[in-house]
Specification:
A hairpin with a 3-residue loop joins strand 1 and strand 2. About 15% of the residues are buried. The chain is built from five helices and two strands. It has a two-stranded antiparallel sheet. The protein has two domains: about 70 residues, Orthogonal Bundle (Arc Repressor Mutant, subunit A), CATH 1.10.10.10; about 40 residues. Helix 2 packs across helix 3. It is mainly α.
Length: about 130
């Protein structure tokens, strides 16, 4: 996995796991790879993945069955979407709107591009 310099590695791994949950790679109450397995997959130290799992557990995205492993919490998808939507609306939407305005991108252009994107995503999922 390629990591960015501007964000902690454990948070980038958490984002990846959340993406995998949103894309149904892992479903509710399904076991996820062990700390060592996931560390091997993303080529980091096990302690980094342990920190990621602790973070996700604190946010009720995953839970631990002692001696068995980590599992996806019920409602994890909804929790992730709500958190990301809140973060996007708070931190990123102003920058997006500013860029649209500065570049002179009209509402019609934006809507057309978004509809095209949605259509492409729907076709790829078939």
């Amino acid at each position: 996995m390629n990591f960015k310099e501007n964000k902690s590695i454990y948070l980038q791994i958490a984002d990846r796991i959340c993406d995998e949950i949103l894309l149904d790679k892992y479903k509710e109450d399904e076991r996820i790879p062990s700390v060592r397995e996931y560390a091997s997959m993303v080529e980091v130290n096990s302690n980094t993945v342990m920190r990621t799992y602790d973070f996700l557990q604190t946010d009720d995205i995953i839970y631990n069955k002692r001696g068995i492993g980590y599992f996806i919490s019920k409602g994890a998808k909804k929790t992730i979407k709500n958190y990301r939507k809140k973060t996007f609306m708070k931190d990123e939407i102003f920058h997006l709107f500013n860029q649209l305005y500065t570049l002179g991108i009209s509402e019609e252009e934006l809507i057309s591009m978004y509809k095209e994107y949605i259509s492409k995503q729907n076709n790829e999922s078939l």
